[in-house]
Amino acid sequence: MRPVSILSRGDDVVSVVRSPQSRRISVRERWQTEYIRRLRLTDALVVCGAVAAAQLVRFGGLTEVHDRLAWSSRFDIGYTAVSLTLAGVWIAFLAIFNTRSARVIGSGPEEYRRIASSTFKLFGLLAIVSLVLRVDFARGYLAIALPLGLLGLMVSRQVWRKHAVAMRRRGKYQTSVLVVGGRDSAKTMTTAFARDNGAGYRVVGVCTPSRRAGDKPTFEVAGLEIPIIDDAISVVDAVKMTGADTVAVAATERLGHKGIRDLAWELEPLGVDLVVAPGVLDIAGQRIEVRPVADMPLVHVEKPQYDRATSFGKAAFDLCFAFFALLAVLPVMIVAALAVKTTSRGPVFYKSERMGLDGKPFQMIKFRSMYVDADKHLNALMEMNEGAGLLFKMRNDPRVTPVGRVLRRLSLDELPQFINVMRGDMSVVGPRPPLRREVEAYDGVVRRRLLVKPGVTGLWQVSGRSDLTWEESVRLDLSYVENWSMVQDLLIIKKTVSAVARSEGAY
C-alpha cells in the first residue's frame, strides 16, 4: 500500500495518495547526500587513524602478540582486536548521535557539539565497562586515542566546512528558498540571506500580500532581482513555480498557527523544508531557548549579555592577551616607528580622542599615518567623504603619507592600541571606538554601543571594516553588545587575523 499524505485547503482536509518514487529529489538533497557520504569516509579514516596511532605509540606496533587486554577472564584479547572494536563503536556513535545530520552539517556550533558529545559518551561507556567487567584498558592508549581522534574529527569537519563555503560562494551547495511574509519582514530576511552568501541560502522568490499600486514586481537585493509572487497564488504553487526546496516564513501573523500547521502538511509530500523566523533579529543562539508552554512552543529570549562583557573575566583576558600581543609584535612596532619617524615630519604616535565605556573620553594611540596638519584639511574634504553615516573615509585620502598607506593597508597603525587595552581604556574585542562628534549625534538605540569598552577589533572589522554601511556597522556593534560571549571573542580574534592578512576593507 502506498503512503497517504494529508493536504489542507482552507477548512477542507483531503487525502492524497502519493508514491515515494514520484517526489522530485531536490538539488539540495543531492549535494547534501554527497556531502554526508564524504563525511562518513573522512570520519572513518580519522577514527581508524587515531586508534591505530594510539596502539602504535603505546605498544610499538599493530600486530604484537604480547599486547593483551588486562582482563580477569578466560578470554585472551589482543589490542588489535580492541582497536578494531573501538573504531567500529566510535564510528557507530557518530552516526547514532546524528553528527552528520543535514540539519547541522556545514554551519553553526551544533555539529562540533555533537561530535564532542558522542566522543565523550563513548569513552564514558568504556569507563563503565572497565568498572563493571573489571577490564583494565591501558591508560596511555586511551589518553592518545581520545584527544587525537576528537581533534582529527574537528579539523576534518572544519576543512569540509571551508569547502562548503567556497562552493556556496561559487553558486553551488545552495538551498533554494521561498520567503513568505509581509513586505518589510520578507525584505529583511532576504537581505540577511544575501549578506551571508557563505550560508548558501539563495532566495528564488518572495510570496507576499498583494502589491500596492506603483510597487515593483521584484525585490532588488545585493544587485539581484528577486520575483515577488502575489499571495493569490498558494504557497505550494509558488514552490513549484520557483523550484524552491525550503520555505522560510518571515512573519507568522499572516498565516497564523493553523496556517503554519497546514503548510507543513502540504510541503511534506514534496520534500520541502519549512523554517519559521521567530521574529527577533541579532539574538545569538545561546540566548534563545524553545520551551513548550500550554502545548505551544514559545521562544524564550534571555537578557542581553553586556553585563558579562564588562566582567572581571573579560578584563583579565584582555590584560593577558594585550601583554603577550605587545611582546610578540614588538619588533614589528619598532620597524614601523622608525619608518614613520624617518619618512615624514612629526611624532611617531598619533593620539585621538575617542569615547569609551559609558561615554568616558580617552586618548586612543595609533602610529601616525597622516601628515601633521591633516586635521586642518578635514572640512575641505568632507564633500569627498566615502564613509557611511557619521564616518569619514576616503580610499585615496591625500593627507595619508606613503608609509601611512602601507601601515593602514596592513593594519599595523592600530598595534599601539594594545597599550590602551593595558591601560583599561579598551578591550581586545568590542565595538568600534567612536569620535565625540559621532557620539553627540547618537540616538537612544546607537548609544547602547557605549555599554561596553570599545575594541581593537570586533564584528565590524571581520565583516568588512570600511566597506560597511553605517546601518550595518551599528547593527554589528549592537549585536556584539547584546550577545557577548568568550567563545565569540576568540572567534572574532581568529577571523581578524584572516581579514587583516587579506586587507579587507582597510584604507
Automatic annotation (TrEMBL):
Pfam families referenced in this protein's UniProt entry, alphabetically: Bac_transf, CoA_binding_3
UniProt keyword list: Membrane, Transferase, Transmembrane, Transmembrane helix
Cellular component terms (Gene Ontology): membrane
GO molecular function term, any single one: phosphotransferase activity, for other substituted phosphate groups
Keyword Membrane: yes
Record's bilayer topology term: Multi-pass membrane protein
TM segment ranges: 39-57, 77-97, 118-135, 141-160, 315-340
Domain Bacterial sugar transferase: 314-501
Compartments in which it is found: Membrane
Record-stated family: Belongs to the bacterial sugar transferase family.
PANTHER family linked to this entry: COLANIC BIOSYNTHESIS UDP-GLUCOSE LIPID CARRIER TRANSFERASE, SLL5057 PROTEIN
Protein name (database record): Sugar transferase
